[in-house]
Amino acid sequence: MENFEAAEEVGLEDPASVLMKAERAVAALRRFVSAAREANANTFDPAQPNADQRALHGFAWAAVTCEALAQLYGWASRSDAFGEGEALVLRIGFGEYLHQILGGLPMSQNEFVRPGDYGAKRAAADLAADLTVRWFLGHGNGTAARALLVKHLTQGWRPCESLGDEVLDAIREQFRRFTAERIAPFAHGWHLDDALIPDSLIGEMGALGVFGICIDPAYGGLGLGRLSMCIVSEELSRGWLAAGSLGTRSEIAGELIAGAGTEAQKAQWLPGIASGTVLPTAVFTEPDIGSDLASLRTRAAQGDDGSWHINGAKTWITHAARSDLMTVLVRTDPADPGHGGLSVLLAAKSRGTVSNPFPDEGIDGSEIPVLGYRGMKEYALSFDSFSVAGDGLLGATAGNGFRQLMRTFEGARIQTAARAIGVAWKAFDLGLAYALDRHQFGKQLVEFPRVADKIALALVETVLARELTYFAARTKDAGQRSDIEAGMAKLLGARVAWSNADAGVQIHGGNGYALEFEISRVLSDARVLNIFEGAAEIQAQVIGRGLLSGGGPS
Ligand SMILES: Cc1cc2nc3c(=O)[nH]c(=O)nc-3n(C[C@H](O)[C@H](O)[C@H](O)COP(=O)(O)OP(=O)(O)OC[C@H]3O[C@@H](n4cnc5c(N)ncnc54)[C@H](O)[C@@H]3O)c2cc1C
Q: CA–CA distance from 350 to each of 383, 439, 505, 541 (Å)?
């Protein structure tokens, strides 16, 4: 382990001094984002939002990366147990991301954006001239620092995850135990069998309150905040993405109804959603309409008796067969082809079975075989005058569906970011365990620097993305608009989950490609996070435009 010994002197850097440097670097990063924002605001034409997507999305990615560092510093400064390991996470995170901001940020595997692409060359030069930034560029993410971090990991150390709140820490502990006992040992078998999540597990999760975390206790929920929801989703997803994803649909339906429903709709649906006896499904995407939801075509018209009738096709509907309630985005005003003609219907349906997945009249569906994300199954649906009760129009007023849904996406994207963090942890756990277990050339894999480097960065990036996610949750919990923060968290979380999974497979060598090994499941699960709940390109667009309009963190 000669690389570890050579690294010892890195550990002599006083953690408090790294923390102080990070604080100053955050101030420099804030100035950088502010200058880049000004440069882009001067050139961006809202009338032609796609004219220079590279500049807008590049700026968005730079802002996300800067905010992740700011939140990493926040984590470090709040950590009760800030020690040498945490200081290494801080210096490697700042060192790596500062280099990426200045030299080329990966917006995807093959798109790198540099400050000149978004008019921030001058701002980048100022950033690079800052003394603490220079320190991190020179000393942050070095071979020795990474080796020392991995040495800590091999000795059982893990970065501080306490939220400084006994209740939140107890929730994490409870769901970590539940996942270890009830989910992790069985997840891969369920995945390989392409089985539905067992009803009994759904029942257990319902009893634990998973489906009503953010629902008001007056309607049977726990009345906790998004931060609690993040911790639960992260821990469940660390066992299996499907388990962490069951609650997504309840979160969407719960927030739609709590935020926009009539009192009668709240009383009718929220208690069942909170207990898990009502399983909702989110019905938005259509065969030709995905990202551009405002253009969707599925129609709903009201009959003489007041009931609604849906006609059209939807696709990619997760858990459609085994659900009891559909939140369906439909066009209720055919004269308005934009978002003003859309409404959300709360459509009751019968729960399907394997032999008869869609027993109701007027709805049919076929399963879409998928790479991963199993456990709930995805369906293409067709509606042929499917009937919805007259009081099923969300909020009892037509034309508000798109706005209602966009508000809901804040919570759903934060929850999806937390799912990504769980997947990222799982990939990290599996990669590290394999690197400790497997020997080549007479050594543990973890002793080879290229293997250790992957593990070190997987850890650091997971903490970065986790802290950005918690920040988005705190913003939402504080009652503030959080679409930009939620988009930031989802954007980075999904990239990190994918890169950790890819690194995990690489560490497993040929075994990583074998279905038998769990990391193969994690790879296919991780891939979807960048596609649903708003694809990465759409998140970057939302973030970029939002920041240029003066929103977002400052
Ligand atoms: C496993 C899975 C489960 C899903 N579950 C559900 C569900 O339960 N309910 C539901 O309603 N939907 C669900 N979806 C659908 C998902 O939300 C959509 O796939 C997603 O919104 C993207 O839409 P699309 O597939 O039509 O891609 P498109 O919108 O056709 O986009 C294709 C590509 O083009 C890019 N692109 C599109 N527009 C732009 C632009 N303006 N600028 C730059 N790039 C752009 C996208 O980012 C993407 O990379 C699910 C999808 C999957 C894969």
A: 14, 53, 41, 38
